[in-house]
């Protein structure tokens, strides 16, 4: 690509809110065969809300929420923030946590008013020898609607499933359809559970889902795809996505996402509109054809 063609190309993209790091990124965009999208914060807005609280018999929902919010107060995860917001909106008295530890990709462990509180996915509870089966119907019901079920255990006993739901970005389905029109394969990559992931995938028109991926495994899943000969564009927003963005042939960050993701990417979609992926790839094809 000539420097002039690249300048014109990246200039046009910038007008559309697509920041391209340079000529190499444009060349890579032209070669892409497969687009991998993170779910939370990329295909969805990334601001979930609590939609349901299912407790086991004998546990009061408000008391449970107060403990859960106390445990999540130190959390920077959108699910944790949603639980804290929900408790505040209900005017619950949230006690201070005596200890807090985030378990990336799984949840949090905390101590609140002498109680050990665990909040997270089934795997987190399993690691502590707690069986989530008694609330599995509730969890499945949340997931079947595309929500994320979060389990809560108090002092080693399953106490509740909190349902959280995130909104799919309004342009997501259109962007996925347009990527297909360009002849690209589209996949979802997420740390969330398979049922939830597949419901959201269906909503946006994706039929290849890689779910239950731990944060440290996202880059490895991208490497697996590249090993099959695919030229991979990874689209993500989170700290968890940074290694996968850096390891992809082309990293695309949601501009409203974390600075870490933006720094690890080649292209930034400033306003977060997913149709920017389509514009960037279409533009790269035009730009490179022009200069040939
Ligand atoms: P994603 O790839 O969707 O951003 P993460 O890797 O951050 O997901 O988390 C994977 C799963 O771990 C979540 O779907 C949730 O079940 C659980 N989890 C992670 N952090 C928290 C938290 N702070 N509170 C409750 N659950 C959590
Ligand atoms: Mg995300």
TrEMBL record:
Domain of life: Bacteria
Cell compartments where the protein resides: Cell membrane
Known function: Necessary for copper homeostasis and likely functions as a copper exporter. Also required for full virulence.
Family listed: Belongs to the cation transport ATPase (P-type) (TC 3.A.3) family. Type IB subfamily.
Name recorded for this polypeptide: Probable copper-exporting P-type ATPase V
Record organism: Micromonospora viridifaciens
